[in-house]
Amino acid sequence: MQKYLIQGGSRLTGDIRVQGAKNSSLPILAATLICTGESVLHNCPDLLDTEYALKILKYLGCKCRREGGTVTVDTTAIARSEVPDRLMREMRSSIIFLGAIASRCGACRLSFPGGCEIGQRPIDLHLSALQQMGMQIEEDHGYLNCSIDGGFHGANILLSFPSVGATENVILAAVKAKGTTVITNAAREPEIVDLAGYLNRCGAKISGAGEGTITIEGVEVMQPCEYSIIPDRIVATTYLAGAAMTGGNVQLLGIDCRHLESILPIFEEAGCIVRRYNNAVSLSCDKRLLPVNLIRTMPYPGFPTDAQAPLMAMMSIAQGTTVFVENIFENRYKHAIELQRMGAHIKVEGRVAIVEGIRSLHSAEVSATDLRGGAALVLAALAAEGASEVANVHYIDRGYEQFEQQLNALGAKITRAFCGD
Ligand code: UD1
Description:
Layout: E1 2-7, E2 13-17, H1 22-31, E3 38-42, H2 48-60, E4 63-67, E5 70-74, E6 82-83, H3 85-88, H4 96-105, E7 107-111, H5 124-132, E8 136-140, E9 143-147, E10 156-158, H6 164-174, E11 180-184, H7 190-201, E12 205-207, E13 213-217, E14 226-228, H8 233-245, E15 249-253, H9 264-269, E16 273-276, E17 280-284, E18 294-296, H10 308-315, E19 321-325, H11 334-341, E20 345-349, E21 352-356, E22 365-367, H12 371-383, E23 387-391, H13 393-397, H14 403-409, E24 413-418
Parallel strand pairs: 2-15, 3-14, 6-7, 10-11, 18-19, 22-23
Antiparallel strand pairs: 1-23, 1-24, 3-5, 4-5, 7-9, 8-9, 11-13, 12-13, 15-17, 16-17, 19-21, 20-21
Helix pairs in contact: 1-2, 1-4, 1-7, 4-6, 5-6, 8-10, 8-12, 10-12, 11-12
The structure holds uridine-diphosphate-N-acetylglucosamine.
């Protein structure tokens, strides 16, 4: 078990380059299975979650290697169509392998996925969509035995909620299906557009990614390709919140500001000066943060649930009250209890959290309870006076590449230690 030791009180200043998007890398790594041969992925972040995805690919028989930010996956010698329980439990997005393995092998056996405990996270939408495309599913002692006689066929899929993972699984199943698939009420996240971008470069015929209706015309032949993954908008938001909370001035490079359009106005409303450039964004803040009207998490292009925790840490030191409404996951306020240990005034009732800003947080020993909640605690500790500890760093390692190195490059004082040190 590792923890962060953080000496708060330093302003975050300077320039850093933001890593590639975790939530693009995972489905794209799964998507490499669909083509036979070697795909080369640039800007693929080195994280626990991408390591888990590579472990699954290797278990299936792929040859994978990483050189810096470039990952090469050779899917020529697939030997298995099963993902064992120990790998499925490592992360929620392992369910993305279902559509990809089934498309490649005509069958797939896997157990129910694990991941951060932020809500129920069922997979009913994934399974019913794939069943409509010809998949037969039998449950067998916690495993799902899936088969598709003669391969997937196209279908009209109406999602009752624009689930990111379900949209990705349907796309993965549909690219080589017989006929055309239309997804109505599809998720519109930039990571969906990125997955479609990779698959189209491999020869798929996907149109409408990024819109509510996606059409996928099945093709017979696809070839692996070289592709560069988009920057991570949630990691960018985390660094911006850190700068805002410490009265800092940072510039993030390698960013697509269009992906941040539901987030940057919130920083502006809080009194930060935000400048948008072609491939960069800068933020400075030289006065106490102001509260914002209401932060409601929504499917893209709304405010992302993954940015809720970092922004809650930020609003905990604003000059007034901010109300959060979490509409995506029902159990995503665990960080609020830990922020309270640092002096934050937060009342949670169901999906609503009322954050009454205080002048400053104090240092404390706190524990990360999930990925983004953990990052929020690090931000709070950076802004607090004195020395704090954040335990359970493995949650943060799932999504942030070289987090402490990046923060230290901006002037933070943060080191990693083994618990018990
Ligand atoms: C993805 C992201 C995650 C983000 C989330 C919402 C990845 C790897 N993860 O997760 O970081 O927080 O989108 O933007 O991309 N639901 C069902 N049945 C299903 C599927 C989902 O009821 O079959 C519900 C979930 O319980 C949740 C909501 O739909 O309440 C959103 O889930 P979904 O969009 O599927 O999130 P993930 O793909 O798991």
